[in-house]
UniProtKB/TrEMBL annotation:
Pfam families documented for this protein: Pyr_redox_3
SUPFAM superfamilies given in the database record: FAD/NAD(P)-binding domain
PANTHER family given in the database record: FLAVIN-BINDING MONOOXYGENASE-LIKE PROTEIN (AFU_ORTHOLOGUE AFUA_4G09220), FLAVIN-CONTAINING MONOOXYGENASE
Gene3D superfamilies: FAD/NAD(P)-binding domain (3.50.50.60)
Keywords: Monooxygenase, Oxidoreductase
Organismal lineage: Bacteria, Pseudomonadati, Pseudomonadota, Gammaproteobacteria, Enterobacterales
Name of the protein this chain belongs to: SidA/IucD/PvdA family monooxygenase
Amino acid sequence: MNDYYQNVIIGGGPAGINLALEFMKRDISYLLLESNESVGGQWDKLPVCGQLISLNKKYVPKNDHTYRMRYDWHTLSSVSADDAEKDPKLLFTEWTSEHWPSARIYKKYLQYVAESMGIQSSIKTNSRVYKISKRKNDGKFIIYIENGNNIIADRVFCGTGRSEPVIPSIKGLTEDLYTLYEDYKPEKASEYYKNKVVIVLGRGNSAFEIAHNLVDITAETRVVTRSLPKFARQTHNVHDIRGQVSDIFDLMQLKSNNNIVSDRIVEVKRIEDGINKGRILVKYDTPCVHWNPPRWMRRTGIVDDIIICCGFNYTMSDIFDQSTVRPECDEKGKYCLLTSSWESINTPDLYFIGAPTRINDPDAASGFVHGFRCNIQALATIIEEKYYGKHLIPLFSYTRLAHEFPGDLNSLSDYIVNMVSTSMPLFELYGYFSCIITFEENSNGNTLIQVWPPFPRKYNYERWGNHKNYIEIIFEYGFSKYSDGNLPTHYFTLPADHFDTSRSAYIHPVFHVFRNCIEVDQFHMQESLIGRWDLDDYVDEETNSEQYKNVIFNAIACAMGIKERRSILPVKAEYLDKCYPIMTEYEIDEALSIQPTLALLSNNLDKKII
C-alpha cells in the first residue's frame, strides 16, 4: 500500500528540520523522512574531529533577534524572536557560549528544536530511502523506503547533504591503501599514526582539519593539493580554509615537518618486501612551469599512510531511478544544477536544500547552516505562493502622492536603515541575495513604493527585472578597488575613505538604481565596524546623524527622477575642516615612513612612493 503526501522532505538534519518548521508555520502539509532513529543529521559523526568552524557568538551590540542571528550560525531561521522569548533554548547560543562549539552538542540542539517546536508527529524515523522514481502518467514521485510502505509525493525536497566521497583518480589507489575522511578516528590517531609520514589528499577544510589533528602525532604531515588552497581570511568565503585549522600553513613556513605541496600524484602501490615493506610508494609527475626552463618533475617517494579528504558529491545518483528521475549535474558531477528557486533544472518539483544549494552560490555561505537556512526561508515563501496561492506580501509599502515634492520619505528611509542593519539573509548571503524596492506610478501620478523580501538575485531579476524603475539592495565587499585588487586583507586596518563610500572595503549595503530597466547609478553606505547603520561608529557632536538615511533618500530620489540630493558627509559641513583636515606633504611622508604599506591602499599617491 502506498501513502500519499503533497510534500516529502528527505533528511532530518538542519536543512530538513528548518524546512519542516517553515512548512508547519505556513500550514503546509509535509512528511519528513529520516533514516536514523532520531533527527539531527550527521553531527554525531562529522566533522570527525568534533569541532565546528561555524561562528557561535553569544554577545553582540544591541539585542535585535535577526542581528544576533548574523553571528549565531547554528540557530535555525524558523526560530522567531517570539519563539526564542518563550523558550530561550531554541537559540543555540543558550546551549554553549564556545565561539567554535562541539558538533555533538549541535545534534542534541536539533533534536530539542524538533521536539519543542512540535514537528515530531510529521517525522518518520528509521525510514531509509533507497530509490526515487517518477510516474509518467501524472508526474508524481514514488519514494521507496526500506522496510516500509512506498510514498507518493507531489514534491520532493532532498536534504540528505553529502551522498558520496570524492576519490581522486590515481593509479593503484585501492581501498586498502587509504583512509577516507569520514573513517578517520581522532581518538585512535595518536596510536595509529605515531611517528609516521602521512599524506592528506585535499585542499579544503576537511583536509586541514585532519592535518591540524595530526600535528602532535606524525613525523611529517604532508597536505597534497592539485591546486593552491584558498584562505577565508583573504577570500571572505567561509568555505575556504578557516583560521582554526590553517595552523598547518604557519607551521610549514616555520619548517616544522608539516607541509603543503601541489605535487601531482599519478600512482601509488604497497611495497611488498625489503626494509620499507608495508609502506606506500608514491610516484609524482608534477609540471613545474615556474622553472627555467620549465620541466616535468617525475620522482618517487615513500610514505606510511594516505588519508583522502577531497570533499563530497551531492547528487544522490545512487538513489534516483535514472530512467525517470535524472537531474542534470554540473560538469564535475558534484552538484545537481538548480533554478534560482533551488528546483532541478530538468526535473520539475524536485528541490534541493542544505549544502547542495551551494551550486548557485559559490562565494557566500550556502554550504553552511547560516547560509542555507536563509535559502530555506526564501524557498518556503516561494512554495507557498507557487503551489498554495499565497500572494507575496511586501515588507513595507508607502504611497507617495503626486503633489508631494519630494514627499515624506522618512518612514521609508528609517525602515531601510533598520533593515540593512539587522537583516540576516542580505548579510550572510552577500552578493547572492538582494532586496528589491519597486516603484509603480498610477494614472493619478501617485507612486506606490514597496520593499520586497530578500531572494537570490537571479530570482529577483526574473521576477522584477521588467519593472521600469526599481532599486536592488545588495551587500558587497570593496577590497578589489584598492591597488590591483589582491592586497592581503591585513592591510585594511585603517578606515575606508569617508568621502568616497564606493571604496568601502568591508561588507556594506549598496543600492543599485534602475530606471527604464537600465542601471543608472549606485549608492554605497560607509562600511561599519559592527555592521549596523542605525548606530554610528562615532559619537562626537559633529557627526552627521542623517548620513545613512540620506544615502537611501538619494537612491530613492534617483529612482524616481527627483533631482534633490542630501548630504552624505560623515560630519556636518561646518565641522569638515576640523574633523578631516587635509594632510600636508610632510605629514604624508611621515605617515608613510612609519607605515609604508599605506601607499598600496592609495590610488592617489605617486608611483615612486610605492
